[in-house]
Design a protein that fits this description.
By secondary structure, the chain is mainly α. The protein is built from 7 helices and no strands.
């Protein structure tokens, strides 16, 4: 079973975001989050839930109670990266993004291979 600190590092790497960005999105100082990533400290429950939300993963997976070795497709990773990034956006940015995503989703695609 991987440690909490290792799971934090692994998940941020999967999403392609830095520790500083995870800390910012979770509303934590770099130093405080750095303590979690290094294994020097563990967060309280509300902070743990916020970090899991930012990393678009379950608390169980972060603390090692769920299998984190599940192989994800590249499409799943992209979707998880998008979900994670959404937590950093304000309401007006989310509204613009929704319009852009809806436009992309409704665009006809060439189905030929």
């Amino acid at each position: 079973m991987e440690s909490f600190a290792a799971n934090l590092r692994r998940r941020a790497a999967q999403l392609g975001i830095s520790n500083a960005e995870v800390a910012r999105r979770a509303g934590l100082s770099d130093r405080r989050y750095g303590n979690y990533v290094s294994g020097r400290r563990e967060p309280d429950l509300s902070t743990l839930v916020r970090i899991a939300s930012v990393l678009a993963v379950s608390v169980d997976e972060l603390v090692g109670l769920a299998d984190a070795s599940e192989v994800r497709t590249s499409e799943e990773i992209f979707q998880e990266r998008i979900i994670s990034a959404l937590h950093a956006l304000r309401s007006d940015d989310l509204q613009r993004l929704a319009v852009m995503i809806e436009a992309l989703a409704s665009e006809p695609r060439n189905m030929a291979t």
